[in-house]
Amino acid sequence: MDFFDYANIAHYFVNTDTWYVKYIVGGLCFLIVFVFQAVGLFIIAGREGYKNRWMAFVPFLNTYYIGVCGQKNRTFKSVDTRIFALVAAILEVLLVVGYVVNDIAWMYLKSYNLIGYEPVTNSYGLSWTVETLSTNIKAYPELLWAVWCFEILDKYILSFMDLAFLVMQVFTLSAFFQTFAARRYMLFTITSILFPIQGILIFILRNNRGMNYREYIRQEQERQYRMYQQYRRQQNFDQNPYNQNPYSKSPYEEYNYNGGGTDSSKSGTADDPFSEFGGSDKDNDPFEN
After folding, report:
1. CA nearest neighbour of 85 among 165, 179, 139
2. What are the tens digits of pLDDT across the range 42-76?
3. Percent of the chain with pLDDT over 90
4. Alpha carbons 30 and 11: distance in angstroms, whole number
5. Which has the closest alpha carbon to 60: 80, 37, 29, 28?
6. Is the pLDDT of residue 90 over 80?
7. Considering the entire predicted model, what is its pTM?
8. Residue ranges of domains in the chain
């Protein structure tokens, strides 16, 4: 589907006389991104041990192969990612066929000058043109199929299929990026849906190893919990007043038994508590007489 996305973008830069330019530009852009995606898937499948790596280089099958490479994770626990990828691949085939038929019908109607352009302005003052069918269409009954494509196939059937393909693509890419870009899988998925660059993103992730996203989340939660516990223990230690209590130092360290003093940094002499009875001089000790 990327081809038509690129072609629609290029359509705004060409006129009706050079309608073929959009297909050339769309084809070149699609080819470049397709090669990036194929190489990325091929490398990933080889490292992860998946078989049938040749599918990465085959259009439509490579859409299914994205689901094969992302099968370690499931968008829904009960549904294999490969089922979503298979449905997406089938819808992609139908959409390509439908858009080709619709473009052929448009060219037929254009060659008969049965398509006109009518300006439209909304309440906000924005203006654009819409394609309308000429009233002379009844004169060409052989183009009824083209009219049906213009009025029904393009506006309703292809629009509905586009929406269904988008949903399947979201499920498939979400599982793939959960496997190979767990930290930013949501960003990669949304970017791939909004812009046709999923092939480049897959190529960027070609060296990442696959992982189970739920196991990754569990490990991250455990790591954060351990960090929180360590932080709380440190906070409790710093705020505990008993970590600096006076009993943390032995009171006996301040007494010098050799010198008899109360401070080891002093001379070592201390006042004799019995000095009033004769002092500390043994010669004057009254009990020695």
Report:
1. 165
2. 999 999 999 999 999 999 999 999 999 999 888 77
3. 37
4. 15
5. 37
6. yes
7. 0.71
8. 2-211, 249-288
